[in-house]
């Protein structure tokens, strides 16, 4: 048995396993409803699952939601949520999911990927502070460094404007404590 994850797009057979994965990875948050809603409502979402072992354990999951930026024609995506099973963390599963997602998004001509997450983690994957694209809700000052982006198309600058995600992301609790 190899620990190297196989990454594929999610399907309906993953739904129960993803609910359990998010509950284990985030015991203090209930992200499963967001995942289900994004899968049901956003037709072009990129949703990837990392499979390990002969039992096809779902070791990790990531989503990239297509969004727009007010006043720009460029295509952008919002990374999140990302979950890795607690017993598979720090083994490269999250990085493999991010890497595969970025490759697929670059092929689809997405110019920038945004994330609201741990700067120490996401900077290891090439993300940096984002100041041109404004999140849909004001962030608390302690979270300013958590708003990050990565340019995929070689463009030096992000488009300027307010991020316009699909309705599933328009809950203030997803952006602010």
Please specify the SSE layout and strand pairing.
Blueprint: E1 6-9, H1 15-25, H2 32-41, E2 46-52, E3 57-69, E4 76-84, H3 93-107, E5 112-116, H4 119-123, E6 128-129, E7 133-134, E8 147-151, E9 161-164
Parallel strand pairs: 4-5, 7-9
Antiparallel strand pairs: 1-2, 2-3, 3-4, 3-9, 5-8, 6-8
Helix pairs in contact: 1-2
Counting DSSP H or I runs of 4 or more residues, the number of helices is: 4
> Multimeric state of these chains?
single chain
Percent in helix = 10-25%
Strands, count: 9
Strand content: 25-35%
Average pLDDT figure: 92
Uncertain residue segments: none
Q: Which structural class fits the helix and strand makeup?
A: alpha+beta
Overall radius of gyration: 16 Å
N-to-C SSE series? EHHEEEHEHEEEE
Q: Major sheet: size, sense and barrel closure? A: 9 strands, mixed
In angstroms, what separates the terminal alpha carbons? Answer: 41 Å
User: Tell me, what's the shape?
Assistant: globular
Write up what this structure looks like.
Strands 1, 2, 3, 4, 5, 6, 7, 8 and 9 form a nine-stranded mixed sheet that branches. The model has no long low-confidence stretch (mean pLDDT 92). Strand 3 and strand 4 (76-84) form a beta hairpin. Helix 1 (15-25) packs antiparallel against helix 2 (32-41). The protein is globular, with a radius of gyration of 16 Å. The protein is built from four helices and nine strands, in the order E-H-H-E-E-E-H-E-H-E-E-E-E. By secondary structure, the chain is an alpha+beta fold. It has helices at residues 15-25, 32-41, 93-107, 119-123, and strands at residues 6-9, 46-52, 57-69, 76-84, 112-116, 128-129, 133-134, 147-151, 161-164.
């Amino acid at each position: 048995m190899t620990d190297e994850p196989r990454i594929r797009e999610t399907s309906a057979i993953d739904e129960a396993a993803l609910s359990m994965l998010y509950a284990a990875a985030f015991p203090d948050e209930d992200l499963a409803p967001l995942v289900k809603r994004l899968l049901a409502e956003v037709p072009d979402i990129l949703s990837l699952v990392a499979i390990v072992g002969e039992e096809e354990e779902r070791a990790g999951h990531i989503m990239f939601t297509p969004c727009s930026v007010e006043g720009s024609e460029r295509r952008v995506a919002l990374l999140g949520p990302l979950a890795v099973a607690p017993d598979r963390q720090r083994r490269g599963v999250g990085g493999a999911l991010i890497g595969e997602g970025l490759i697929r998004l670059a092929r689809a001509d997405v110019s920038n990927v945004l994330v609201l997450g741990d700067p120490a983690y996401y900077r290891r994957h090439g993300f940096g502070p984002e100041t041109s694209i404004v999140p849909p809700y004001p962030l608390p000052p302690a979270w300013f460094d958590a708003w990050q982006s990565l340019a995929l198309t070689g463009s030096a600058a992000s488009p300027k404007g307010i991020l316009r995600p699909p309705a599933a992301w328009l809950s203030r609790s997803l952006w602010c404590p």
